[in-house]
Structure formats: structure tokens, C-alpha cells
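I have been asked to look over a protein record a colleague put together. What it holds is a sequence and that sequence's fold in C-alpha cell form. Please read both lines and tell me whether the C-alpha cells look consistent with the sequence. I do not need a full report, just your reasoning and any doubts. This is what I was given:
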Amino acid sequence: MGSLNKLKALVLRNNSLMGEVPSSLKNCTNLFVLDVAKSLLSGPILSWIGDSFQQLILSSMSENHFSGNLSMHLYYLKHIQVLDLSWNNLSNGIPTFIKNFTSISKKSINITETGSCTDMNTIYDYYKNTFYLDRYIVNITLMWKGVENWFKDLEFGVKAIDLSGNQLTSEIPKEIEYLVGLNELNLSRNNLKGEIPSEIGNLNSLDSLDLSRNDLCGRIPSSLSQIDGIGVLDLSYNNLSGRILSGRHMDTFRAFFFEGNPNLCGEQLHKTCPEDITLTKPQEPITHDDADDNSDFYEASYMSLGFGFFTGFCGLLGPLLFWRPWRIAYLRFLNKWADYIYVIVALKMCRFHK
């Protein structure tokens, strides 16, 4: 295979090929299409794929047994538009160098770039996104919105990254924001953690975003509501919390796109959020309760005491203080009682001593 150094497209999908991809294949530096999906190939993900296949536009290696990390050599895939590594045994995190996928970082292809990818036998028309290999037209099968589709003549014009069904961990890198031309991003069925980066809202060309069946947490970033053209948004079976975004196109997504997140709430799930619940005390009939009765009793008591003090002062103490005959008569009365008490006490003392 390595001697076919002018090979443009290698499509070996749906076979029972086993073992590792031969390293001699890296001599095929003119490859635009590499499709070895749905086979039994194994071994580490190709470490030389970026160095050797710098013209690669479509790479599909899904449903094999490739293992290891996403090699730094993918850094050189500047022309890649479709990268499908789903359903393998890839581990560790998503590298931050994905921002160097130059073709995916553009919303449209600059037609002046066609000169670097054109020779006598191959014309890659960037405007029409169609491959012509002499008289043979390449057709390819891709997963699109969760369904396998056959794209005739590669007239798909789609830019997609599918890393689903692996063992990827860590967080979704914020560098994802640079892939503004991306149409489909599928990171489902991994072990991704952390929050969904708010920068993901910059991918306003997205038509499908699948982050389901991971361990993502936190709130759904409000920036997702800015992607008007998104048709599929699957966030089910994570640990997301808070209110599901509403308004605009967010109301069109059904409940199963959010199920499996116990702490999510909102209209889509027909679940009321805690902040929407107002605790109101039931109103009681308007009657005189105990507190009102007690307050009336104390008020009446204070009024009675005041009235009694005023009456006693004016009726008894007032005349004694301000009217002299009454004061003299009162003092005589007190003296008479004092003498009477003195005599009684003296008589009793005498009888006691006898």
C-alpha cells in the first residue's frame, strides 16, 4: 500500500480487516480521503497521520478498536473538514490544538486556496465541495444528526467532528470556540467532566450538538440560545442543573433531549424551578383572635388605673393638701387612733407582767 504514493482516496470501510494500519501507508502523502470505518483495526491511533496526510480533508476511522490518546500530530490537519473517530477506545482529554483545524475555523472556503490541492488528475472544487478522481466519484457514509447517511459525490459541504463512544475524560476545551464553521459536534457517550464552556455559543454554524451521556455539570450556558440554526441539541444524561433556556428556538427541543438530569427544571420538562415556588401563608378569616383580645384588655386596665388614680387624688388627697380644715381633722383622727393603740398595748403589757 505504501508504494501507491499518488493515491488520492482510500476507502476500506465495512470489511473485517484486523491488526494495525501499516506504517508504510504514510508514504501516501497525497491522500484526501481516508475511510477505514467499521472494521476490526486496532492499535494506537495513527501518530503520523498529521505529518503524512497534511492534505487530508475527510478521515473516518469509526467503529474500530483504535486506542491511546488523540496524538499531537493531528495538529497538522489544517485542511480537515470531517473527522470521525467515534466508537473506539480513545482516552484522556480533547486536545486544545483543535483550534488549528483551519478549514473548520472558517465559515466558507476561500476559492483561491484551490491551487494547493489541484493537479492534472484531481480537482477539488472548494466552492461545490465535490471530489473528482478522474472518472471515479467518491461517495461516503457519515453519521448526521444521529442517523447514518449516504452522501453522494461528497456533495455534503458539511464540517463535522465526531468523537462519541470513546473514553475521553477531562473538560471540553474552551478552544472549541475557534471552530466557527463547524456544522456537527458529537462528543456523546464519553466521560467528559466539568461545565459546558460558554464559548460554545460562538459556534453559530452548528446544526447538531450532542453532549449526551457524559458527566457534565453546572448550568446550560445562555450562549447556546444564540445559535439560531441548531436543529439538534442533546444534553441528556448528565449532571446539569438549573433552568433550561427558554425562548426563541430553545422551546422547540423536546423533553428527551434534557432527561436524565435530575436537577434540571423548566418548561421543556414540565418541571417547576425552586425559585418559581412562592410560599404563601393561607389567609385566616377576619376575627378577634387572642392577641387582639389581650391588647383590648390591657388597654382597658391602663385606662381604669389612670382614672382611679385621678379620682382618688382629687377626692381624698386633693382636699387634704389644699383645704386646711380637712387636713386638721385628718391629723386629729390619726392622733386619736395612735393614742387608742398606745393604751391598748400598755394594758396588755401590765396584765402580762402580773
User: Anything to note?
Assistant: The longest strand covers residues 40-44. DSSP finds three helices and 20 strands in the chain. Residues 290-322 form the longest helix (33 residues). The chain has two domains: 9-276, 310-354.
